Automatic annotation (TrEMBL):
Residues 7-104, 143-244 form the Pseudouridine synthase I TruA alpha/beta domain. Keywords: Isomerase, tRNA processing. The active site is at 52 (nucleophile). It is an enzyme of class 5 (isomerase). The lineage of its organism: Bacteria, Pseudomonadati, Thermodesulfobacteriota, Desulfuromonadia, Geobacterales. This is tRNA pseudouridine synthase A. Homodimer.
């Protein structure tokens, strides 16, 4: 039995997230359907995690088992010929039988894009959050430092989060300004449901002056969800890479 690892890029706009669910078309479902067409039978993909509806990915990792003796190019070039244009396999690799995309992952890198232009941008509407108010980037960077380290992120998890523990380690939160864009790069050993989006929403509240940078530190001391800012919309978020 072969264990095939896929690196997957997708535009999440048209999908109800990664994971198969009864009330919407998902990325996992679409990939499994194309794999079943290629392999002549049902296939179950195991992924490095989930993404919410509207979230994008450059480097989602998933794996599946097969007895078919097809060349690896069949699982990249061949599979891409069956997939819709908003999903693509960027690489395929044969892994040891024990490899699991989720349990073997040691870290993830997410990027959130904010568009700060005065006028809305039709070209950016699916990939960046349009924040019309002026943002104090220096204050946001000071606040971002409070997220770094191993901490209890209970105040930064979305409703319905089923994680057994809310302790996570964030390695870095970097904010880069380029013209009318801010890119927030978040790296850590794992993330709770909507955690990155809630972190970004809080940093934007700091940037607008509604919160002070030190308020972020206090949220860890007294994790009251109602005290935080808004949850950033999903379409600005992209899973860049999973580390092993």
């Amino acid at each position: 039995m072969r264990n095939i690892k896929l690196i997957i890029e997708y535009d999440g706009t048209a999908y109800a997230g990664w994971q198969v669910q009864p009330n919407g078309v998902t990325v996992q479902e679409t990939l499994e359907r194309s794999l079943a067409q290629m392999l002549g039978g049902p296939v179950r993909l195991h992924s490095s995690g989930r993404t919410d509806a509207g979230v994008h990915a450059m480097g989602m990792v998933a794996a599946f088992k097969t007895e078919k003796n097809l060349p690896l190019r069949a699982f990249s070039d061949g599979l891409n010929s069956l997939l819709p244009r908003d999903i693509a396999v960027r690489g395929a690799e044969e892994m040891p039988a024990t490899f699991h995309p989720r349990f073997d992952a040691v870290g993830k890198h997410y990027r959130y894009t904010i568009f700060t232009g005065r006028y809305r941008s039709p070209l950016q509407r699916l990939y960046a959050w349009h924040c019309r108010r002026s943002l104090d980037v220096a204050a946001m960077r000071r606040a971002a430092g409070h997220f770094v380290g191993e901490k209890d992120f209970a105040a930064f998890r979305g409703a319905g989060c089923a994680a057994k523990t809310t302790v996570r380690r964030v390695e870095a939160v970097d904010i880069a300004a380029a013209g009318e864009f801010l890119q927030l790069d978040v790296r850590g050993n794992g993330f709770l449901k909507q955690m990155v989006r809630m972190m970004v929403g809080t940093l934007v509240e700091v940037g607008t002056g509604r919160l002070a940078p030190d308020d972020v530190r206090r949220f860890f001391e007294t994790p009251v969800p109602a005290a935080k800012g808004v949850t950033a919309p999903s379409h600005g978020l992209c899973l860049v890479e999973v580390y092993y």
